[in-house]
């Protein structure tokens, strides 16, 4: 897992189902950040985006109700989050959609905060 806080939380005994979702979300997050920072999306970025997008598009509906109470208390750009940050980010069709996309970069922390809260709330770990 890429995020150190999430890695510490899940290391304390999270379910395989949850760990799988978080690992896939980490992949998506890495693609978004890499494309945004480099201001380009190459073939590898596109391939990675399509792979993880396909997986998360199937997995997210199973997680929506569990994640909703957690993202609803987050902020995006200092404003209350009005829609699921997960759906907002998965809504992009291509990796290139993140070139210069500051809104996506503002949305990532809300999704990560919701994931971390869901992990803690699941009772799978103690902090």
Overall geometry: globular
Number of domains: 1
Taken as a percent bin, the fraction of beta residues is: under 5%
Query: What is the residue-averaged pLDDT?
Result: 87
What oligomeric arrangement do these chains adopt? single chain
Q: Distance between the terminal alpha carbons, to the nearest Å? A: 18 Å
Q: Biggest sheet, open or closed, and with what strands and sense?
A: 2 strands, antiparallel
Proportion of residues in helical segments: 55-70%
In spatial order, strands of the major sheet run 1-2
**Count of helical stretches:** 5
Structure write-up:
The chain has 127 residues and is mostly helical. The protein has one domain. 67% of the residues lie in helices and 3% in strands. The protein has 5 helices and 2 strands, in the order H-H-H-E-E-H-H. Strands 1-2 form a two-stranded antiparallel sheet. A hairpin with a 2-residue loop joins strand 1 and strand 2.
């Amino acid at each position: 897992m890429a995020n150190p806080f999430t890695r510490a939380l899940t290391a304390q005994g999270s379910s395989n189902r949850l760990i799988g979702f978080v690992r896939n979300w980490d992949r998506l997050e890495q693609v978004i950040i890499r494309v945004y920072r480099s201001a380009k999306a190459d073939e590898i970025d596109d391939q990675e985006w399509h792979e993880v997008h396909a997986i998360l598009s199937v997995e997210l509906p199973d997680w929506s109700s569990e994640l909703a109470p957690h993202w609803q208390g987050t902020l995006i750009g200092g404003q209350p989050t009005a829609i699921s940050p997960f759906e907002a980010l998965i809504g992009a069709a291509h990796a290139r959609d993140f070139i210069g996309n500051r809104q996506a970069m503002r949305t990532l922390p809300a999704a990560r905060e919701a994931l971390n809260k869901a992990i803690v709330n699941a009772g799978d770990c103690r902090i």
